[in-house]
C-alpha cells in the first residue's frame, strides 16, 4: 500500500523521524556490539590484536559494501519494507554468532549481522521522502544523532557483561532487534510519495558518475570512518594503555559517543552560519591538532648537565585523553554534517543512491581503519600509532581540499562561471582531444601519431606495475611456509588464486570506466590505487602470526592490478587506426605483461636484501635455514614507482571527447554474439597465460621439491609477454583468426607434453622436459593474446559498416571503436578468471587424487572447444566474419 497524500502533516513527519531515529539507535548499538563484547571474546579465545581488529571490523565491512545496494533497493521497493528486513535478518546472524565456537564461524556470522550498517541509508531515504527539499538536510542531521546507540553498547553492554556471558549478551541484542523491527513495521507508514522510483537500475546509478559524489565520499572516508573506527578501537586502547577495567573503558567510550552525537545539532547551525567550506577547514584543522597531541606516546627525557643528569617524563593522563578524544569526536561530527549538508542540494532526486555511495565509502573507512590500527600496533609496538595515521590522513585531506578550492576559484574568476564539481578531477582543456580522427591518414601523420604514441608509452609502465602487483602472491606463497606462516597447501593455492578472482571481477567494471570518466583520469587513479595493497602488505608480511583471513583480504586487494588491464586496453584502442590497433594493443599488453616476469625476477633478489629496511623473518626450514628474509620488500619496492607513474599519467595523458558515453550506451555489447565467442577464445589465451604464471612456481615446488623453481619462474611470463606483440603483428599482416587457430593447436601439444614429463608412481618425472613444455605454453598463449585482441576491432568495424551502410562510415567507425573498447574490457574481465581457475584446478586435483593430471585433461578439452569456435565463426567461406 502506498500513501498518495503530499505534503504529509507535521505530526506524520515527526512520528516518522522519531520512529526511524529510535530504530536506528538500536541498529547502531547492535552493529557495534563487538567493540565491547569482542574484548571478552579475545580474552577467552586467545585471539591476537589483529584478529580482534578484524572481527570487530567485519560487520563494518559488510555494512559498508551493502549500503549502495540497499540505497537502490530502498528507492525501488520502499524504505519501510527494506528497513524492517534489515533488522530481522541481522538478528538471525547475531543468534548464530552466539553459538559459534571457531574464529571462522564468528567472522562469517559477524559479516551477516554487519548488514545493519545499511540501515542508515535506508532510514535516510525513507525519512527524506516525508520532508520537503528545504527540510531534508535537517532531518538527515537528526537521524545522524542516532549514533548515540553506540553509546548504549559501550556502557550498557559493559555493565551487563558483569552478569551475563558474552553469548547471552549477543542473544539479548538479537531479541531486542526483533522487537524493534516488529514495532517499526506496525507503527510506520509507507512513503507518502514515490513517483518515478521504479526506474531502470542503470538510470538509478547515473549520479555515481558525478565527481562531486566521490569528493564527498573521500571526505566521509576519514570523517565517518574515523568516528566508527574510534568507537570500535577505544575500549581496547583504554584497557591496554591506561589499564582501565571493561566498565570504565565502556563508560569513556560512551561519553565519546554521546558528545559526538549531541554535537550534530549545534554543528548543523554552525555549518548554516559559516558555510560548508569553512566548516570543512575547521574540521580537518582541529582533527589534525587533536590527533597530533593524542599521538604522543609516554616519553622520558634525560638532559645531561655538567655535573648531573636531569630526567623528566611526559605523558597524556586519562583526563587529558578524554578531553582530547571528545574534541576530536566533535570536529569529526562537524565534518560529517558539512558533508551531508550538500546532498539534498546537489542530488534532490537521488538521495538514496548518493547517500548509499557516500556512506559505503565511509563505512569502508570504518572497516579498514580499525583493522589497520590493530595491524600497525602489532608491527610497530606503539599504541599511539593509530592517531599518527589519522593525523596524516586529515592533513592530506585538508591539503587536497585547499588545492581544489583554490583551483575552483581561479576558474570562476577567469571564466566568470560557478564550479561545483571536483576541479582537480575534471579534465583541463589542454588534456582533451576534441578532434580525433585516427582513420584520416593526413590527420594521423601530422598530429595523431605523436599523441597516440605518447599515451601508449605512458600507459605501458602503468600496466607493467599493475601486473607486478597483481601477481605478487605467486612469489609470496612459495616463501611463506619456510618463514613460519602456518598455512596449508590448499590455503596457499587460494592466496595465489584470489588476486585473479578479484582482478577478473573488477575488470567487469573497469572496462566500462574509460568512456564514463576519461582514459587519462582513470589510468592515473587506478594506478594510484595500487599503493593500498603494497603499503598494507609491507606491514602484514613482517608478522608470521598475521591471520589467514587478513592475507585473503590483501590478496583480494592485489586484484586492483588485474582490473587495470581492461581499462588500459580499452583506452589505448581509441587512439590508433584500425591497421595499427593490433600492434599498439600488443605493445601495451605485451610490455605490460612483463610486470609478471619482473616481479618473479626482482622479488627473489630484493627479499634477500635489507636495502629497504624493516625487520627480517628467519627461514625456519629447508636448505636456507636461519637465513634472514625481508619478505615485505616484495611489496615495498613498487611503492615509489607506482607514485611516479600515477603522477606522469595524470599530467601526460589525454582524454578523447568523442569516446564519452554512458554505461547504457556500452551495454549493447551484451546483445552481440561475438562478445561471447571472443570471451571464450580470450579465456583460452590470456586466461591460460595468467593462470600458468600464477600457478607455475607453487606447482613446480610441489611436483619437483628438489628444484628451486624460483630461479626459473620469471622466464615463462617473460617469453609470453614478449610474444604478445608478435601475435598482434602477425595478426595485422595475415589474419587474427588463422594465427589464433594454430596457436590453440600448439597449446594442446604443449599440455600433452607437460603431462608426459609429470612425476608418477613409476617415475620421478623430468623437470627439464616439464619446464620446456611450459615455455611452449607461455609462448603460444602470449602470442594468442595479441592475435585474439586484434580480432575484436576488425569484427566490430566490419559488422557496424555492414549495418550502417557506406554512407555512414564515419558513424560506423565511432560506434565500432566504442563497442570494441567495451568488448575488449569485458573479455579481459572474463579471461582473467583463468588466473583463478588454473591454480585452483591444480590445488583441487592434488587434494582429491594426489595427481594434477585431471586438471590438464580439462585444459585440453577447453582448447579443443576454442579451436572449433575459431574455425566455425571466423575462418572459411561460411564464416560469420572473416578476421
TrEMBL record:
<comment type="similarity">
    <text>Belongs to the major facilitator superfamily. Nitrate/nitrite porter (TC 2.A.1.8) family.</text>
</comment>
<keyword id="KW-0813">Transport</keyword>
<keyword id="KW-1003">Cell membrane</keyword>
<dbReference type="InterPro" id="IPR036259">
    <property type="entry name" value="MFS_trans_sf"/>
</dbReference>
<dbReference type="GO" id="GO:0005886">
    <property type="term" value="C:plasma membrane"/>
</dbReference>
<keyword id="KW-0534">Nitrate assimilation</keyword>
<dbReference type="GO" id="GO:0015291">
    <property type="term" value="F:secondary active transmembrane transporter activity"/>
</dbReference>
<keyword id="KW-0472">Membrane</keyword>
<dbReference type="GO" id="GO:0015113">
    <property type="term" value="F:nitrite transmembrane transporter activity"/>
</dbReference>
<dbReference type="InterPro" id="IPR020846">
    <property type="entry name" value="MFS_dom"/>
</dbReference>
<dbReference type="Pfam" id="PF07690">
    <property type="entry name" value="MFS_1"/>
</dbReference>
<dbReference type="GO" id="GO:0042128">
    <property type="term" value="P:nitrate assimilation"/>
</dbReference>
<protein>
    <submittedName>
        <fullName>Nitrate/nitrite transporter</fullName>
    </submittedName>
</protein>
<keyword id="KW-0997">Cell inner membrane</keyword>
<dbReference type="InterPro" id="IPR044772">
    <property type="entry name" value="NO3_transporter"/>
</dbReference>
<dbReference type="GO" id="GO:0015112">
    <property type="term" value="F:nitrate transmembrane transporter activity"/>
</dbReference>
<keyword id="KW-1133">Transmembrane helix</keyword>
<dbReference type="InterPro" id="IPR011701">
    <property type="entry name" value="MFS"/>
</dbReference>
<dbReference type="InterPro" id="IPR004737">
    <property type="entry name" value="NO3_transporter_NarK/NarU-like"/>
</dbReference>
<keyword id="KW-0812">Transmembrane</keyword>
Amino acid at each position: 500500500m502506498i500513501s498518495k497524500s503530499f505534503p504529509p502533516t507535521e505530526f506524520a513527519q515527526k512520528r516518522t523521524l522519531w520512529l526511524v531515529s529510535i530504530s536506528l539507535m538500536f541498529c547502531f548499538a547492535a552493529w557495534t556490539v563487538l567493540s565491547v563484547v569482542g574484548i571478552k571474546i579475545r580474552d577467552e579465545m586467545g585471539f591476537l590484536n589483529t584478529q580482534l581488529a578484524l572481527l570487530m571490523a567485519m560487520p563494518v565491512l559488510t555494512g559498508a559494501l551493502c549500503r549502495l545496494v540497499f540505497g537502490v533497493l530502498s528507492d525501488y521497493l520502499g524504505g519501510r519494507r527494506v528497513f524492517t528486513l534489515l533488522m530481522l535478518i541481522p538478528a538471525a546472524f547475531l543468534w548464530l554468532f552466539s553459538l559459534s565456537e571457531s574464529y571462522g564461524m564468528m567472522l562469517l556470522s559477524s559479516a551477516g549481522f554487519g548488514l545493519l550498517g545499511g540501515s542508515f541509508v535506508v532510514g535516510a531515504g525513507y525519512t527524506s521522502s516525508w520532508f520537503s527539499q528545504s527540510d531534508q538536510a535537517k532531518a538527515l542531521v537528526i537521524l545522524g544523532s542516532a549514533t548515540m546507540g553506540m553509546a548504549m553498547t559501550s556502557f550498557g553492554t559493559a555493565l551487563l557483561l558483569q552478569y551475563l556471558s558474552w553469548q547471552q549478551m549477543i542473544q539479548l541484542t538479537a531479541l531486542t532487534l526483533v522487537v524493534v523491527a516488529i514495532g517499526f513495521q506496525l507503527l510506520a507508514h509507507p512513503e507518502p510519495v514515490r513517483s518515478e522510483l521504479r526506474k531502470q537500475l542503470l538510470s538509478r546509478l547515473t549520479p555515481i558518475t558525478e565527481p562531486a559524489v566521490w569528493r564527498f565520499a573521500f571526505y566521509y572516508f576519514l570523517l565517518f570512518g574515523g568516528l566508527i573506527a574510534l568507537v570500535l578501537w577505544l575500549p581496547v586502547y583504554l584497557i591496554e594503555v591506561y589499564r582501565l577495567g571493561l566498565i570504565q573503558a565502556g563508560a569513556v567510550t560512551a561519553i565519546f559517543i554521546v558528545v559526538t552525537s549531541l554535537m550534530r545539532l549545534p554543528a548543523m547551525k554552525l555549518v548554516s552560519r559559516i558555510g560548508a567550506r569553512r566548516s570543512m577547514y575547521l574540521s580537518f584543522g582541529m582533527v589534525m591538532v587533536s590527533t597530533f597531541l593524542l599521538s604522543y606516546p609516554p616519553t622520558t627525557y634525560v638532559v645531561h648537565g655538567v655535573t648531573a643528569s636531569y630526567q623528566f617524563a611526559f605523558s597524556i593522563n586519562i583526563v587529558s585523553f578524554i578531553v582530547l578524544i571528545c574534541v576530536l569526536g566533535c570536529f569529526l561530527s562537524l565534518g560529517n554534517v558539512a558533508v551531508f549538508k550538500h546532498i539534498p542540494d546537489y542530488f534532490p532526486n537521488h538521495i538514496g543512491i548518493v547517500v548509499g555511495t557516500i556512506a559505503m565509502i565511509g563505512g569502508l573507512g570504518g572497516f579498514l581503519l580499525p583493522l589497520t590500527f590493530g595491524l600497525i600496533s602489532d608491527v610497530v609496538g606503539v599504541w599511539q600509532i593509530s592517531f599518527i595515521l589519522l593525523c596524516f590522513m586529515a592533513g592530506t585531506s585538508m591539503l587536497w581540499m585547499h588545492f581544489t578550492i583554490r583551483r575552483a576559484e581561479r576558474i570562476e574568476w577567469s571564466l566568470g562561471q560557478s564550479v561545483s564539481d571536483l576541479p582537480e578531477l575534471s579534465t583541463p582543456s589542454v588534456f582533451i582531444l576534441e578532434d580525433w580522427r585516427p582513420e584520416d591518414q593526413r590527420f594521423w601523420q601530422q598530429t595523431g601519431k605523436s599523441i597516440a604514441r605518447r599515451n601508449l608509452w605512458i600507459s605501458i609502465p602503468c600496466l607493467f606495475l599493475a601486473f607486478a602487483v597483481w601477481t605478487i602472491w605467486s612469489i609470496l606463497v612459495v616463501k611463506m611456509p619456510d618463514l613460519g606462516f602456518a598455512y596449508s597447501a590448499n590455503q596457499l593455492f587460494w592466496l595465489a588464486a584470489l588476486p585473479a578472482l578479484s582482478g577478473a571481477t573488477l575488470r567487469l567494471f573497469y572496462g566500462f570506466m574509460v568512456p564514463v570518466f576519461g582514459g587519462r583520469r582513470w589510468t592515473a587513479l587506478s594506478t594510484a590505487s595500487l599503493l593500498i595493497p603494497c603499503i598494507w602488505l609491507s606491514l602484514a608480511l613482517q608478522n608470521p602470526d598475521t591471520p589467514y583471513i587478513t592475507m585473503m583480504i590483501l590478496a583480494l586487494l592485489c586484484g586492483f592490478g588485474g582490473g587495470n588491464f581492461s581499462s588500459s586496453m580499452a583506452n589505448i584502442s581509441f587512439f590508433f587506426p584500425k591497421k595499427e590497433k593490433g600492434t599498439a594493443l600488443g605493445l601495451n599488453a605485451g610490455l605490460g605483461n612483463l610486470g609478471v616476469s619482473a616481479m618473479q625476477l626482482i622479488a627473489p633478489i630484493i627479499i634477500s636484501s635489507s636495502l629497504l629496511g624493516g625487520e627480517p623473518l628467519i627461514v625456519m626450514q629447508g636448505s636456507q635455514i636461519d637465513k634472514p628474509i625481508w619478505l615485505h620488500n616484495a611489496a615495498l619496492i613498487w611503492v615509489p614507482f607506482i607514485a611516479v607513474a600515477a603522477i606522469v599519467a595524470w599530467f601526460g595523458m589525454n582524454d578523447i571527447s568523442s569516446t564519452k558515453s554512458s554505461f547504457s550506451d556500452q551495454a549493447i555489447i551484451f546483445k552481440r554474439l561475438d562478445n561471447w565467442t571472443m570471451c571464450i577464445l580470450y579465456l583460452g589465451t590470456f586466461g591460460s597465460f595468467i593462470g600458468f604464471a600464477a600457478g607455475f612456481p607453487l606447482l613446480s615446488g610441489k611436483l619437483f621439491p628438489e628444484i628451486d623453481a624460483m630461479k626459473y619462474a620469471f622466464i615463462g611470463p617473460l617469453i609470453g609477454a614478449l610474444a604478445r606483440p608478435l601475435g598482434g603483428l602477425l595478426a595485422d599482416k595475415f589474419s587474427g583468426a588463422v594465427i589464433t587457430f594454430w596457436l590453440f593447436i600448439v597449446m594442446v601439444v604443449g599440455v600433452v607434453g607437460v603431462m608426459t614429463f609429470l612425476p608418477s608412481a613409476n617415475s620421478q618425472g623430468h623437470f627439464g622436459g616439464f619446464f620446456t613444455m611450459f615455455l611452449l605454453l607461455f609462448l603460444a598463449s602470449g602470442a594468442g593474446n595479441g592475435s585474439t585482441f586484434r580480432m575484436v576491432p576488425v569484427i566490430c568495424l566490419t559488422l557496424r559498416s555492414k549495418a550502417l551502410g557506406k554512407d555512414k562510415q564515419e558513424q560506423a567507425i565511432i560506434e565500432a571503436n566504442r563497442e570494441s573498447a567495451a568488448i575488449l574490457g569485458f573479455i579481459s574481465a572474463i579471461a582473467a578468471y583463468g588466473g583463478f581457475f588454473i591454480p585452483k584446478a591444480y590445488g583441487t586435483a592434488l587434494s582429491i587424487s594426489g595427481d594434477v593430471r585431471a586438471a590438464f585433461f580439462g585444459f585440453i578439452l577447453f582448447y579443443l572447444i576454442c579451436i572449433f569456435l575459431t574455425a566455425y565463426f571466423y575462418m572459411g567461406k561460411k564464416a560469420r566474419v572473416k578476421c
